Amino acid sequence: MKYSPDESMLAVGSHDNNIYIYKVDGTNYSLHGKLTGHNSFITNLDWSRDGQYIQSNCGAYELLFFDVNSLKQLQGGATQLKD
Q1: SS (HEC) of 42-72
Q2: Which pLDDT score, from 0 to 100, does residue 77 have?
Q3: I need a surface site. Which of 24, 35, 45, 60 has the fewest CB within 10 A?
Q4: Sheet containing strand 72-74, strands side by side
Q5: Separation between Cα atoms, residue 16 and residue 58, nearest integer Å
Q6: Phi, psi of 43 (to 5 degrees)
Q7: Cβ(11)–Cβ(32) under 8 Å?
Q8: Distance between CA 65 and CA 43 in Å, rounded?
Q9: Domain assignment present for 83
Q10: Residue-range definition of the domain harbouring residue 63
C-alpha cells in the first residue's frame, strides 16, 4: 500500500492479483479503479515521481507498468515512463 507522491491517491496491492487505486480527499477515499494483469499476488508497488504511473511486482516475479489515469497496462515497460 502506497500513497502517490502528492498523496492524492492510494494504491493497494491485493492477494487477488489486482491493484486498487483510491482517490483521497481529506479523510474520504473513493475507488478510482483497478489495475489488472498480474498472475499472482502483489508483492511490491511504486509510483513514478509525477504520480502518473505505477510499477509493480507479484509472486510470479512479473514486473508490470501501469498508467494510473487510463488504468491500462503499459506494454513497453519502463521505456515509456518519462519523469
Answers
A1: EEEEEECCCCCEEEEEECCCCEEEEECCCCE
A2: 61
A3: 60
A4: 42-47, 53-58, 63-67, 72-74
A5: 11
A6: -105, -25
A7: no
A8: 14
A9: no
A10: 2-76
Asked if residues 64 and 17 have their Cβ atoms less than 8 Å apart, the reply is: no
Mean pLDDT of residues grouped by 10 in the chain (83 residues)?
97 97 96 96 97 96 95 74 43
The answer as to whether 32 is a domain residue is: yes
3-state SS assignment for residue 80: helix
Locate 66 and state its grid cell.
501501469
Number of independent structural domains in the chain = 1
**Amino acid, single-letter form, for residue 49:** R
Query: Is residue 52, in this structure, part of any structural domain at all?
Result: yes
> How far is it, in rounded angstroms, from Cα 40 to Cα 64?
12
**Cα–Cα distance, 59 to 67 (Å, whole number):** 21
